[in-house]
Amino acid sequence: MRFFIGAFVFIVLLLFSVSLLLPTKEKRIFSDDALRVAALSRDMSSTPETYEGLLKLLKTDKENLFREKVELGRDLYFEKKLSKNSDISCASCHVISKDLKDKNIYLDALTSKANDKTDCVVCHLSDQSATDRFETSIGDGGRENPFHLNTLTTLNAALAKYQTWSGNVKSVEEQVGLSIKDASQMNLSADEAVERLSLDASYMKRFEDIYGEVNFKNIEDAIAAFLKTLITRGDYDRFLDGDNDAMNKEAKKGLAHFLNFGCKGCHTGVSVGGQSIQKFPLRDYNSVVDVTNSFNESQKGREVATFDFNAKMYHPFPFENRGGFMGKDGQRLFRVPMLRNVTKTSPYFHNGGVAKLREAVHLMGKHQLGMNLTNAQIDEIVEFLRALEGDVVEFNIPSKKGEL
Amino acid sequence: MKSSYMKIFIIIMFLSGILQYSIFDLSWQYFKTAQATHIIGSLLIAIFLLIPYVNMHTYEFMIVKKAKSMSGVLLGITLFFIILSGIYLFLVGNRGGDILGTLSFYIHLYGSFVLLYFLFSHARKKFHAKPLVLLFFALSMTFVDNTYAQEKLTNIKIEEGVSRYHNEDWTSSAKCKSCHEEIFDQWADSNHHHLVGTNPYYMVMENLAGADMGEEFRQWCMGCHNPSAVTTNQKRTTHEMDGSLMPNVLFESGSKRLLDDFKAHGNSRLEQGVSCVACHRITETDSKGNSAYTLKIRDRKKYAFEDSTSEIEQYLGEKFINSNPQVHKDSYSNKLYKKSSYCASCHDEFLPDESKRAVVSTFKEWRDSPYNNPKDATKHKDCIDCHMTYLKDGEFAPLKGRSTDGGVVKDDVKVHYFSGSNHFLSGLKSKEHEDQTLQLLRTSAKIDVDIKDANISVGVKNVGAGHHLPTGVSDFRELWLDITVRDAKGEVVFSSGKLQEDGNLGLDARPFMKVFGDEDSKPVGLMFWRYKKMISDTRIPAGERRVESYEIAEAKTLEYPLKAVVKLNFRIYPQWVTDAVKRAYPQLPNPDVVVLEKIEKSFEK
Predict the structure, then answer these.
(1) Which pLDDT tens digit goes with each residue over A29-88?
(2) Which of A229, B35, B212, B408 is 20 to 30 A from B308 via CA?
(3) SS3 helix, strand, coil % of chain B, rounded to 5?
(4) Which of B194, B177, B251, B180 lies closest to B430, judged by CA?
């Protein structure tokens, strides 16, 4: 008996000490140029500045992406007719302003006589984040998403291989159609959408010029064309393009962590995510011996998360499971979110369960990488994520005939 | 248990206890370890070893009557008092409010020398410890610590080598509530707490500043409004969300949200705005304004377990503070805090460019006023003498009470309502706050009225404010005269200072305020940072009287007696400002017009 008690105590002590015994070793330190080379070699790349670069990135050609089509798409993006009650447009949730150059948006909204913009839009329109920052999306007639899923940004969405939280959708064109038809989004049938636009002479003419006719596929195509031009570019891209001063020291350290720790394994590609479907949380800390301890800040910086006993209820996610969404096929499989502009798209995770970016980074470290990030590491990673913030590039898109 | 072990235990406890004594001036790092060791160690030893051991002794002495030792009895009695006082110190603490706490502290301190003396004299083998113990005892008596209730300036230097703080460095104010509940509750609904995410006017203005001048410009606002965010490298102020709704924090009293947040996330989530430590860890100010202060958040003395996330450790941490709170007091108070120059670091504000044009100059106004009278203490009044003193029935009535639960009863507790002029935002949350502010506002001015010939002249005297009236962001304050004159028949023959239908002040009103203009002397409206030229400045300096005269038309044909009703009205924000803020916060009500003074007077021909 005494032996078993001794053995038990020994094992428990070992479990407690293992995380403390492992060193918090410094990972590789990069010079600026080496950091760039390392990032580029791991399939990370910058967004283009020119129309030609854009075509190359999207693997499309001039015949498929020209000014008239993009402008039609933009108008449709802001078109409230495309929702059942004609009260919302794409831009109601994917909040962005029609004229990105307008610097007086905010002041005008505050002081205009017409009381057309109120609430959140007033302040957040100038963010140009193309999302509404809500926990759950709100569709036609005020209907919330049945799974409490929040709105994804449309910025850079065209660069992702998979769309939506579960990653079931493969292209923006497809997703545009689904969003219009979805009962908790625009809630409008394909036929009715075509009918409504056909009644508008100006739309009729524009569709005829571009496609020859109005049909649902063309509506999808036009809006998708506009989305394909919503590409952001920021400090991170300038750094990758050779400007060592574009990112500050902390952000560079953050990028090094991003490469060293393995974040880049999933958040990769030009969109820094959106290229694969992965399990979350990867480490399911639900057994009696629990290493979650998610909000316990005392043992940071260890390679192995701290040991603890778990007396909590079973929890599929390290935050409240509002909406009960379990990912693709109910297997907790999620499309890896894109990190471009992540600083502008709180709250985080599919149901908006985490409000702060630092907490989100901490949870990702714990559950996906199995490590307790230190405060300083989180700061640096957040600084890097800030460098991923960017403005929408104003491409000089030629007309159908090729005129600039 | 061998008695030699017991002696070793007692001596260890004595040493770890005596090391905390102020004459040793132990460095903080060792002090807190010694304290924790002392308290936890003696608890364990006392309960598991010492008490059974002493019981055995007592049994032998009283029942078996085998042993006979005078020194043993005295040792036992002393030990009893030491344990009793120790337990009192642990459970209740020496917070200053009850005499028992102070008594326990001294019994525990000096009793320990007595204990040691008897311990040696009780020992079977005598050794010459007596002179040593006596010397020690005598020495300690000469250094009786009388500085207990005093505050001294800290000697901490600027934190060098610290580039930024982390969220965890900023102790949440919610933590302070457990011992300073009353002060916390006062602060919780005050304007100092609601300076950022919960203040709709601020949020709109910071966003506007960011949109107009570039995102970086927000830091100018945040320096004073949001020190925790600035020092943790946040780029902007954020507001709360409840799912897809912005919570209606305007009416939420007692900082419920902050307390909930602290419960769920501890210190890992940053508390924005001016928190307890933001003010109470300012170590230097140079009274130049624009957030010119030195913060030392990280470099402060914390007791063992003070920052722990575990509940048991937190409980112990609080007990450690209570049992010997001097260091805690010293860490968070400073003589500087009573001086106006301390407030100046934020209540003086200028444009962050080479012009340094003054936007808010409350401190400078006070400095040049009769209230700044260092030669005559009876006439000298600092900021806190009005703004942190309790008011009752319209008079300053220093509040007798405690600032710590169970602490010393003070004659003038400095209340943390931070009454100023903004009765509106704090009033939405707490009527007590609104009442305090309105009382303060009404001490500020007196009016008089006279009608001569065809003129009505009204004098407004700034009798109570140690600065201009209005001060602060006086481009967004409305203080004006509302005048109605009726003739013998009761018909209105003259009227001025009425509100228009849209809520804005009538064009005929003459508000006491300043109006900023741009290069072309056009009013800057909301964007006060565009201020280039002063268009008008009609504020009333401290102690001065301003007379406004109006002409009554057709005065000669009027039927006397004329009856004049004059009101001195105040509105915290002009309607056009509220209208703009309401676009973003539709739930915001309109601020009331407050009557500060009112006189009615009849005039014969």
Answers:
(1) 789 999 999 999 988 999 999 999 999 999 999 999 999 999 999 999 999 999 999 999
(2) B408
(3) 45, 15, 40
(4) B251
| B266·A135 Cβ contact <8 A | no
The angle formed by the CA atoms of residues A182, A185 and A189, to the nearest 5 degrees, is: 45
- A314-356 per-position pLDDT tens digit: 778 888 888 999 999 999 999 999 999 999 998 999 999 898 9
**CA distances for B457 relative to A186, B482, B509, angstroms:** 65, 12, 14
Q: Is A249 on the interface with B (CB under 8 A)?
A: no
- Using a CB-CB cut-off of 8 Å, the residues of chain B touching A366 are none
> How far is Cα B432 from Cα A83, in angstroms, rounded to an integer?
49
> Considering only alpha carbons, which residue of chain B is nearest residue A120?
B584
Nearest to A297 among B168, B208, B586 (CB): B168
A356 vs B235, B246, B269: nearest CB: B269
Which residue among B208, B265, B269 sits closest to A106, beta carbon to beta carbon?
Answer: B208
Instruction: Map out the domains of chain A with their CATH numbers.
Output: 20-47+233-392 (1.10.760.10), 59-95+130-230 (1.10.760.10)
Which residues numbered 185-224 in A keep a CB inside 8 Å of some CB on B? none
- Predicted structure pTM score: 0.84
- Best probe of the A interface among B162, B231, B268, by most A CBs < 10 A, is B268
CATH of B444-603, one of 2.60.40.2550, 2.60.40.1190, 3.30.1330.30, 3.90.79.10: 2.60.40.2550
- Contact yes or no for B180/B150 (Cβ under 8 A): no
Task: Tell me whether residues B168 and A375 touch, CB distance under 8 A.
Answer: yes
